[in-house]
Write a structure and sequence with these properties.
The protein is α+β, with helices and mostly antiparallel strands. Helix 28 packs across helix 29.
Length: 1098
């Protein structure tokens, strides 16, 4: 690449000059290419360890004039090919011009200006994202692509100096983290280590320190573990690795590739060594933390945050914390947890004004809302800029008024009235609605139970659903109108579960309640078809409807499914399985003795799934469980973990005495059945499970308030950020386990229809799935949604297009045809694509491979024969049809066979055999043509026995007649692999793009469309002379000439060499291992020449 001219004082230090002219010098860096001795090894090692190769490529071009000792670096290249192109351009375009100048300074000025002009022209065509990345980072990205064979679509996120541990020996090198891969490269004293791991293969990611390994990062896959250490900042590196692994798991789960954020604002100043993708991922991480902290919608983007203080009128003090500003909200969180939190929607803001500064209150900012609340912030840095940003967002905020629509219910219960009064006092002191100050007093009131008259209002407030409903005023009504009346799989499942939703509650014992539940569930299934409907959603939604209107219940369900319980209600309940794993880990930490015993019994995984999916609503009396829902909407999933641990702790002695799973389940079931709410307003509704399991002696009742209090006392130290960290670890494990389960299901479904072994089918599925996943981020002819349909069986879910199939065919097919392989692959793809949607599934893929590997000779020949009938107008429904091969197709079949035999040990015998068979079949076709020309119906022709062949034809077949012409035609189909001259080095041969010139016939023989122009056609002479002098090059195919498959088969059976070739068994394991190694490489070589570096391409 051309680079901005830079001064070079020592031109020959660590460099070797290879070419020179009066104005330019082409140099190669020592340690690259062959030779170099100990100096080369040391330079190569320094380049890797010190990262000088990220700035200095192995080749460069210097500009020098006259006897000057000052040189200018004007170009660099990662390969000889690249630098040679620049050198040739200079010699062609500049040498003659420079010879005109008399003054050396003028020459240098001209050269520098020319190079800068070329660079400016190239920059115009570069994408804006690439322009943002600094030069050094772009060099590192190019180096990554060269070392690991990555295409341009693979974007580098960041790279770090670190050590990779091979056994107990650390290898110092560079770790490259791209969107889809983790790569490592090291070159130390002639020893090279290269490692490539796909993020989708990662099963575990840990940061730990042991006696064997210092503080390190462990990356685990299904096959092995990799350790990296000696990072400059291990925490930042590990966070980025977590993000990239999370993106990969989302890709496996949702089949969505990574999409860069096009709305990301450009940085105010250039950030050295930070790519646009790294800034994108950092911004995503901040947005996720911001949205989780304040329960905001998924489209909310944090614009910035700053330290400040907030005046709290209820405490008469300034609280230190941070202000967060986004496109729709101004939020505040105190530095001390639970001290104060505030959310101000911009739609509620009426006035933003700067107050007068003083020594007591520096840089104050006053924000007033439409409901007459005023918030005073102070100690703001760059207050003017902040006010301007808030004003910009306010101008884009639509003016909407949304009051609270919570149902108000009057109750005569004294305790309920006391709760209501406590909340009214709280509202008076801390405010009411979305702008309410949220403090530890708010949490204390929630733990005591929300009064039923306020439950709907406060659930909407604490979950963030109130904000989403306010910004989408008529969304639900429109959704119901669009969704109702449609018949889908989701609506069928909803109808089945409607009458199972809290049947013991009177609200759902009539059609009115059932109809409302139907509308909410159907509307959500229509809104989010990725989730649709999942069992347990009906139970949760029915409870929401008891305290909210339909629209409020809908938005609460949105908050639950999409924010508070992510991935809980998709088809594989991944989120619940993840939290089940988190619960097991928490049990191991908090209740180690019980954990060991429960694991032996296998109870934890059984009980916890129903607890989490329904928030205890299906396992606890309703009046008690709804109090846990109160706490959940305020505290999040943390409270569910706490209560679950408290339940296990309360039953520890009995559980430790259990001997089987059923006994433990009974103990826990009876305990939860008897968790009662003594402050309930209405008569307690008996739980169905309690009615079925109650014994003669009723167990003691447990007060739900005591259970909640105990959970906070014993396990209240749980923190949301720790839970998220544990969720990440479990998500890797759960999704990879689900992928393994899917693989086993596919193998079980197809093993009876395929001759491949189970292990072979599993490996084939892994390779097939990898190609599908790769298409999500490296581009394909169709969208990921078109290639993946979750509603289909696992066997048919993933599909690949012809390009991906061609790559797998080249790597796995036993029929290697050189450059003709791509044509054969395209034909097989068309044959396997039964529904003609340009995609094939795994079952079709295995069917094609199975025919090549495990079919008998007849089946293999049938497959090969039919692959060449794709242009025929004859219907090709099954192999059993009477299919005729025309002359053009026969020529192509002969070429394919010739190419298949080109690397076989018995190559000459096979060539002779196929030439003999082709000559015989040509004569058979001529005989068939005579019948056709006489107007008779085409008979079922058979190959003529040797004694029936006319004497003249026998002489032709053994002499210089038809056989020689067939051999000539076949020879023209051969594609010789060019070999470089003996005097050219390996390195030059690798970079040289020149190829030995092929004949016109050889180059054209790959494309069937060119047959008529450049292929010798057999038997097309005037008067039907076979192999006579009347045969001419370039004559058109004979439309009347044809043969059947039976004739081809019978003819091939006469040649033992061909019979042995097609009956030979092939082993697919070695090919699968080689294919797998293309993306997971770890090797050592003793040289770092350009030729060998290029071999790292995978």
């Amino acid at each position: 690449m051309w680079i901005t001219p830079e001064e070079v004082l020592l031109a020959n230090a660590l460099w070797v000059s290879e070419r020179a002219n009066p104005f330019f010098i082409l140099q190669r860096r020592k340690g690259h290419g062959k030779g170099g001795g100990i100096t080369g090894l040391l330079v190569g090692t320094l380049d890797v360890v010190l990262d000088s190769s990220a700035r200095v490529a192995p080749y460069r071009i210097l500009h020098q004039t006259g006897d000057s000792q000052l040189f200018w670096s004007i170009a660099c290249g990662s390969s000889r090919k690249e630098i040679t192109e620049h050198w040739e351009w200079l010699e062609t375009n500049l040498l003659q011009t420079l010879s005109i100048f008399d003054n050396d300074d003028d020459i240098t000025t001209f050269v520098k200006g020319k190079i800068q002009g070329i660079i400016a022209e190239e920059n115009k065509s570069r994408q804006a994202q690439e322009d943002e990345d600094c030069g050094k980072f772009r060099e590192a990205e190019l180096k990554m692509r060269k070392l690991f064979g990555m295409p341009e679509e693979e974007k580098l996120v960041n790279y770090y100096s670190c050590s990779y541990w091979k056994g107990r020996v650390p290898r110092q090198g560079w770790l490259y983290l791209s969107v889809n891969h983790l790569c490592f490269y090291s070159f130390l004293l002639g020893k090279e280590v290269t490692l490539v791991v796909q993020w989708t293969d990662v099963t575990q990611l840990d940061k730990n320190a042991t006696l064997v390994f210092p503080e390190s990062v462990r990356v685990s896959t299904r096959d092995t573990e990799h350790y990296f250490s000696m990072f400059l900042n291990i925490n930042d590196t590990f966070k980025l690795m977590e993000q990239l692994a999370n993106i990969a798991m989302r890709q496996l789960l949702d089949n969505e590739g990574f999409a860069a954020d096009r709305m990301l604002p450009k940085p105010c100043k250039t950030l050295k060594n930070v790519s646009a993708l790294k800034r994108d991922l950092d911004a995503r991480a901040k947005n996720e933390r911001y949205r989780a902290l304040f329960r905001l919608t998924q489209d909310e983007r944090l614009d910035g945050h700053t330290d400040c203080t907030l005046w709290t009128p209820f405490a008469k003090m300034h609280v230190v914390g941070q202000m967060f500003v986004s496109n729709n909200y101004i939020c505040f969180a105190s530095r001390e947890e639970d001290l104060c939190q505030l959310i101000i929607p911009l739609r509620e803001v009426s006035i933003v004004e700067k107050a007068d500064s003083s020594s007591v209150l520096p840089s104050p900012l006053s924000i007033s809302t439409k409901n007459k609340m005023t918030f005073l912030f102070a100690n703001l840095k760059d207050r003017d800029f902040l006010v301007q940003r808030i004003s910009d967002f306010l101008q884009r905020t639509p003016d909407r008024l949304c009051g609270l629509t919570g149902q108000s219910v009057s109750h005569s219960n004294t305790k309920e009235k006391m709760k209501e009064e406590s909340w009214n006092i709280h509202f008076f002191e801390f405010g009411r609605g979305v702008c309410m100050y949220r403090t530890s007093k708010t949490r204390d009131l929630v733990l005591k139970g929300i009064p039923e008259s306020l439950r709907g209002e406060l659930w909407l407030l604490f979950s963030g659903a109130q904000n989403e409903m306010a910004t989408h005023p008529s969304y639900y009504a429109e959704l119901v109108e669009q969704a109702m009346g449609r018949c889908t799989l989701a609506t069928e499942e909803i109808e089945r579960d409607l009458h199972r939703s809290m049947p013991e509650h009177h609200a759902f014992q009539n059609e009115m309640g059932i109809a409302a539940l139907r509308r909410v569930l159907t509307a959500y299934a229509y809104r989010n078809p990725g989730i649709g409907y999942c069992q347990a959603m009906n139970i949760v939604t029915s409870v929401l409807l008891l305290y909210c209107t339909e629209e409020e219940a809908f938005w609460l369900l949105v908050a639950l499914c999409e924010r508070m319980l992510p991935d809980y209600y998709n088809t594989r309940v991944v989120g619940a399985l993840v939290d089940q794993g988190v619960f097991e880990e928490l049990t191991r930490e908090c209740l180690p003795l019980l954990y060991e015993h429960m694991q032996d019994l296998g109870v934890i995984s059984t009980i916890s799934l129903s607890w989490f999916l329904t928030l205890f609503l299906s396992v606890m009396p309703f009046d008690s469980a709804v109090l846990l829902v109160d706490c959940f909407f305020y505290e999040g999933i943390k409270v569910i973990f706490q209560v679950s641990l408290a339940v296990l702790h309360a039953n520890m002695e009995q559980l430790l005495a259990c001997t089987d799973e059923g006994e433990a389940m009974t103990i826990l079931g009876r305990y939860l059945d008897n968790v009662v709410n003594k402050q309930t307003v209405s008569a307690p509704i008996p739980h169905l499970h309690a009615l079925l399991t109650s014994g003669d002696e009723p167990p003691p009742e447990i007060d739900v308030f005591e259970l909640i209090k105990t959970s906070y006392e014993k396990f209240g130290s749980l923190r949301a950020d720790v839970i998220e960290q544990m969720r990440f670890k479990q998500r890797l494990k759960v999704i990879q386990c689900l992928e393994d389960t899917a693989k086993r299901s596919v193998v079980r479904a197809i093993m009876t229809e395929s001759a491949f072994a189970i292990e072979e089918l599993e490996e084939l599925y892994v390779l097939f799935k990898a190609k599908h996943i790769m298409s999500c981020y490296w581009g394909a002819s169709s969208t990921p949604a078109e290639r993946h349909d979750p509603s289909l069986p696992y066997l048919e879910q993933y599909r690949i297009d012809s390009g991906q199939f061609g790559q797998l065919f080249s790597a796995l097919s036993p029929w290697s045809c050189g450059m003709h392989t791509a044509t054969l692959s395209a034909r097989l793809f068309r044959l396997l694509d039964s529904n003609k949607d340009s995609l094939i599934n795994f079952k079709e893929f295995v069917t094609g491979l199975s025919g090549m590997y495990h079919g008998d000779m007849t089946e293999k020949l049938k497959l090969l024969y039919k692959l060449h009938l794709y242009k025929s107008h004859v219907r090709c429904a099954t192999f059993d049809d009477a299919l005729f091969c025309f002359q053009e197709q026969f020529i192509e079949l002969c070429k394919t066979l010739y190419n298949m035999f080109s690397e076989d040990p018995l190559e000459q015998e096979l060539y002779h055999a196929i030439a003999t068979v082709a000559s015989l079949l040509l004569r058979i076709g001529e005989v068939g043509k005579k019948f056709t020309n006489n107007g008779s119906k085409k008979p079922e022709l058979q190959p003529l026995p040797a004694e029936d062949v006319p004497q003249q034809e026998k002489e032709d077949s053994s002499g210089e007649g038809g056989q020689s012409l067939v051999s000539k035609a076949l020879a023209e189909a051969q594609l010789d692999n060019p070999t470089p001259p003996a005097n050219v080095s390996d390195e030059e041969a690798k970079d040289d793009t020149s190829i030995s010139s092929y004949s016109v016939v050889s180059a054209g023989s790959l494309q069937c469309e060119d047959i008529a122009d450049d292929t010798v056609l057999i038997g097309c002479g005037v008067g039907g002379a076979i192999g006579g002098n009347d045969f001419r090059r370039g004559s058109a195919p004979d439309a009347d000439w044809s043969i059947s498959f039976e004739q081809v088969l019978a003819s091939l059976l006469t040649e033992p060499a061909l019979v042995n070739y097609f009956e030979k068994k092939h082993d697919i394991k070695s090919k699968m291992a080689a294919c797998k190694a293309q993306r997971a490489v770890e090797r050592q070589i003793s040289s770092s020449s350009d030729h060998e570096l290029a071999q790292l391409s995978t």
